[in-house]
Amino acid sequence: MDSKIHGARPLVTHSLLSPSNLSRPGREKLCTNLIRVKLYGAARSRSDRIEWMLHELGVEYEFVPIDFVKQEHRSPEFLRLNPNGKVPVLVDGDLVLYESAAICLYLAEKYPEKGLMPTDLNTRGDAFRWIFFALTELEAPLWTKARHTFIYPERKRVPEVFESCEWEFRQRVKTVEEALEGRTYMVGESFTLVDLLLAEVLAWGAHVGLLTDSPRCQVYYELMKKRYAPTKKGQESL
Ligand SMILES: N[C@@H](CCC(=O)N[C@@H](CS)C(=O)NCC(=O)O)C(=O)O
Fold it and tell me: Which helix (H) or strand (E) holds 28?
């Protein structure tokens, strides 16, 4: 695992799981010691949404890419961080956190001045609704299809589920399409974590060709995504 530091001063550092690299002298090591936040992730994975969050918050962090091909997510070191063997994992001081939405919520709550979670209780309720909707209703069918396409071992893949997954996703997108009428942001009057998560999941849907009948969703996720150009650091380091 190699790691890179993002934020105001991106900098390449080296493997946390290869102690020989840690002994490299000079600036790289010095900066590693100053960074409190580490993000374990992979290119084109749910760690993208955490990178976006950190970007919105202006938090400097170290990115530790997990190489699935090398099975680094199943290494004993990584399983100590997340026993499920999945990214993203955020380490912030003593706190080790997995589950992307939990990480996003934690970060939004840690930096309330950035306004990524509403403060008014009713608007917060609305935000909770859309966060859970994004993950359990909208993302779930995409994830089920992905699992049966390339995640599960071949003997466990059931291509017959594709059609129902696509149907389910399109049904749920209709809800988002209607809710977005006349709105720039999904809750309140400014960008929040809700927009970030919805945009991430809608972009995934668009990527697999399932957003063709949803013009508002299309415009919405593209507009939200313009706030952040992914650093692709994870990708570069693979
Ligand atoms: N519910 C988890 C899902 C995490 C997840 O499935 N991550 C994928 C990458 S996007 C992963 O690490 N997969 C590796 C595997 O399933 O073996 C979250 O939102 O963080």
Answer: helix 27-34
